[in-house]
Amino acid sequence: MKKYTLLLTLALATLTCAVLEGLVELSPRFIQFNGGLTIICAVVVIGWILRHQVSIFSKD
What we know:
The chain has 2 helices and no strands. The radius of gyration is 15 Å and the shape is elongated. It has one domain. The protein is an all-alpha fold.
């Protein structure tokens, strides 16, 4: 559970940075890095949610 909490915190942090990209002028290198990190975290979170849902439905 600790691993998932860390992943969710990281995902929220990167999504916050992604929102801030639109509000302030940042270097292109940071935008590329944060964009990649946002995509990776989104895939991890979506994968975790889908696995969790599958485990719930497989119990029925």
